[in-house]
Amino acid sequence: MATGYLEILRARHALRLLTGTLVGRLPNATAAIALVVFVRAEGGTYSLAGALAAVYGVANAVGQPVLGRLVDLYGQPRVQLPAAVLAALSMTLFACCGTDPLPLAYGAVAAAGLFTPPLEGGLRALWPSVLRRDEQVHTAYAMDAIAQEIMYMVGPLLVTLCAALWDERAALLVLNLLGVLGALSVVASPPSRAWRSAPREAHWLGALRSPGLLALLGAFVFVGIALGSITVASVSYADGHGGDAVYGWMLAGLGLGALVGGTVYGARQWAGVPERRLRVLVALLAVCYLPLTLTPGPVAMVLLAVVSGVFLAPCIACAFIIVDRHAPSGTVTEAFSWLVTTFTVGASVGTGVAGPVVQAGGTVWGFAVPGAAGAVSLLVLLGTGRVLAAPARGGVVASSSENDPNRAVEPRFSSGDRA
């Protein structure tokens, strides 16, 4: 099973790019918890901490596709590194000034979110120039999804560790310094410096002029809603079954399930087009959320949480392939960044929806929200099947061949060929 992953990691520059991207994304992955911990240490309320985290999230959702488009236009080093430095300086300003005055705090946090570099989309644009075959790129997408789960499990521990060793302000500063170093490692690499987007047609919609990409984004809003709502429902469950420890175990279970599912998914080649495969994966994701409504005891609930997470990483990895197939020529980084933004917005909506549902109907109804959101995502994919069946030309695979004329690149598959 591990052979495909080891083959990718042995490819020149692959380990550096993956590690640098993950380290560079630490400030973003830990922003919510780091902001809450810091604001509480400064004597601020949970409401203020939540508001600042929300401002960061909204600004980040706006900034990712904008910066992604700039990367497609001007290359990675000229956008990613300056953005990382500006984001780190903004968070440093917030860490030094604290929550007083409030306008400055909100402005600094918003700038930190807005300038967060689109390293996630950038890495996916780089994989085809580093790896030799399409199937390796697809495995790399799965490995990327797995690495995200590990990062989101390890990130909060790093915040806690830094706060314990020094203090909450130091946690913000250290994590943002690591973010700059990670971005520097990526943009200084030969693949990043050599990468150029494919020629693009000037259009104000950019990547969003692709109907297939719009259909995928519409479906993934609801996948994000499912993930956001399950965290709120888990808090409600934990309040009556052991408190924070149970909540932590449930989220760890979700991450473990996604890790296992993504590992198995990426370890083999799949027949059939990815658009059809995504429909199956989303259906399985929705079905696996339903047993959570049984709300058994803590041990059984943690096991159900593991099961509910199994198909999350495969859904994300499959979506990466579909973005590649439907992104208009010259817009690949922007297209991947739109997927990140859509997922983030969906998770925020899910958090906002689940709260009133739990308040009105209790924990059981809170856990019904993820299943319902997964079902709606499936309906969107089924309703847009004809649009998704006609992938665009000129995405990642096409652009990568222009970067390396000596590399033999397999042609993009049509909707009737093997993914």
Automatic annotation (TrEMBL):
Coiled coil: none annotated. The keyword Transmembrane helix applies. Residues 396-419 are annotated as: Disordered. Pfam families: MFS_1. The lineage of its organism: Bacteria, Bacillati, Actinomycetota, Actinomycetes, Kitasatosporales. It comes from the Bacteria. One of its GO terms (molecular function) is transmembrane transporter activity. Residues 404-419 have a biased composition (Basic and acidic residues). This is MFS transporter. Keywords: Membrane, Transmembrane, Transmembrane helix. SUPFAM superfamilies: MFS general substrate transporter. The chain crosses the membrane at residues 172-192, 213-234, 246-266, 278-294, 300-323, 335-358, 364-383.
